[in-house]
Design a protein that fits this description.
The protein is α/β, with parallel strands linked by helices. It contains three helices and five strands; from the N terminus they run βαβαβββα. The strands form two sheets. The protein has a three-stranded parallel sheet. Strands 1-2 form a two-stranded antiparallel ribbon. The longest helix has 12 residues.
Length: 106
């Protein structure tokens, strides 16, 4: 399963809040061999969008959730085999937000 609280997650949450993000909860997932550790939490939360820089984290995420892949490394990226799972691909989180809001009239 997943853990809602640990020291690393709490530090991340404080950092996001410090920078003005209105986040109520941050979930920290652990890895399990052969299983996407984020899928269970993402499915439970059922967000409008899930943004990640690791394509394998889209495995098991339903198509009803927008999956945005952020490119951090274009050369020999381990994400190439997961491009088909992403709903969209972006150079940065800011680019995703701008595009997503523009396309939805936000």
């Amino acid at each position: 399963g997943w853990r809602a609280c640990n020291s690393r997650a709490q530090a991340r949450l404080r950092g996001f809040r410090k920078h003005g993000f209105p986040i109520d909860r941050l979930v920290s997932t652990g890895g399990r061999l052969g299983i996407n550790p984020k899928a269970e939490v993402i499915i439970e939360m059922n967000p409008v969008a899930f943004v990640d820089d690791l394509g394998s984290n889209f495995v098991g995420i339903p198509d009803t959730i927008h999956k945005a892949l952020i490119h951090l490394d274009h050369d020999d990226s381990p994400n190439i085999k997961y491009f088909g799972l992403a709903t969209s691909q972006h150079e940065s989180l800011a680019e995703f937000v701008d595009t997503y809001l523009r396309d939805r009239g936000g």
